[in-house]
Amino acid sequence: MSDIRARRTAVLASAAKAKSKAKADATDRAIRRLVKRGEPITFQSVRREAGVSHAFLYGNPALRTRIEHLRAQARPQPAPLGDASRDNTIIQALTSQITHLKKQHRDQDQALRSALEQAHGENLELRRELARLGWTGQPQRRDLVASIATSK
Fold first, then answer.
1. Are 116 and 141 part of one and the same domain?
2. Does the predicted model carry a pTM greater than 0.70?
């Protein structure tokens, strides 16, 4: 019985190693794809791309070290102080100005749309009133004759 048990244990251990290697290879390919696409390397992005668990990534020392190293490389280094504060002030002022202009544009656009909508409504009412009065869009002959007679 112990011989069968030892074989089963060996088969299970072999299968677990193969599964772990397959996951590690999938994670490696996922990291390469993320780097190639220029996406940030984080445990979350690698987990999603490779289809593995957080526990697998954190539990594998080689993968964990690699992900932490790539993540640290991708973080932007703080800019030296000096011109940066002046640049930030300019950027903030311009951003504020753009935001104000966008709001002003939206308000003007809404006012114009409301005025156009009101004009369309008034135009429709006037056309309906003219239709009710029997206006066909062409002056009547007698109206022409009357206007010519009064102009002389």
1. yes
2. no
